[in-house]
Amino acid sequence: MTDTAPPAHPGLTGGPVYLDYNATTPIDPRVAEAMAPHLTVAFGNPSSGHAFGAGPRRALAEARADVASLIGAEPHEIVFTGSGSEADQLAVRGAVLASGASHPHVITQATEHPVVLETCRALQRLHGTRVTVLPVDGDGLVQPSALAAALTPDTVLVSIMAANNETGALQPVAELAALAHDRGVLVHTDAAQAAGKLDIDVRALGVDLLTVVGHKMYAPKGAAALYVREGVELEPVVYGGGQERGLRSGTENVALAAALGRAARLAADELADGAPVRTAALRDELHRRLANGLPGRVHLNGPELRRLPNTLNISIDGVPGHELLARTAQVAASTGSACHSGAHTPSPVLSAMGMDADRALGAVRLSLGRWSTQADIATAAAALVSGATGQ
Asked: Do residue 264 and residue 337 come from a single domain?
């Protein structure tokens, strides 16, 4: 394997233990190195026919190939976008508007990322699209029988995320895609949290559209891509000069594409080197330390096995998540609640799973990543136990 040992990260020294990798990842120094020339000397427009365009054009092609390789796609099936939200919107809005259906129907699910849910609502409001939001079970999973019952002759798209950003729950995407394809329905999955953390193969999943997000895999914010299976028609998200297969016109951001490509290559190396197993071991050690330090008070939210290897979502009896993290400055993590004008409300994801308000308000999401260490786990666990006991 190559490039599997990450260099020390300057942003993670001397501060709190960073356990919020699902929110965003630090930019890997090797990724920053890959994009740097395109911010200075390699400034040309990749569409230019002269020498200054040749280097950027090669960089785009290389990045496209690296992203494709990570997910088992072909390079020409990769469309670069400016964010995961843009990629999701291109997939959902693009599929509906290109379908030509007079009464299009879209199916998604209750714990989906807000961009998919809001895009569906906008299609409903602006274009009369009918939307079905499937329920999830107590682990946050869609039951295939629910999807089978919801499919109709008017259904044009099913959009189900690969992995939940809060609980790490892994949806049965391949099984759901097979059901949809039996009815001739396109399938999109937002793999923002899964790509780079798990082996992803678009052919094995059977999806037609898949979202990859750079800042979830050690590239900068603003770098993302959409896999568009060859033959799938989408309405463009940006009209103009025809870049990115005409789906997202505008001169390409070569620096960010190069960063995403390098991030994809590094992720592929780490996956081959067994990184998910090592990360899961650290996650489980953190869980054990918390459970041992707070006997009977720690509850796992989401599935025990069918989840991302880096994600631990727990509730601790007797202390709201936001209060716990406020007491624990040594740990940078996220809660399972949203704050509106000073009032905390339960996470919609946990509520959709049927969780009562007190437990949902107690939730804390601890997500590990490339630079998480045994020492980090010991420090974070001790600090969280101390914060939960008021010591």
From this structure: no
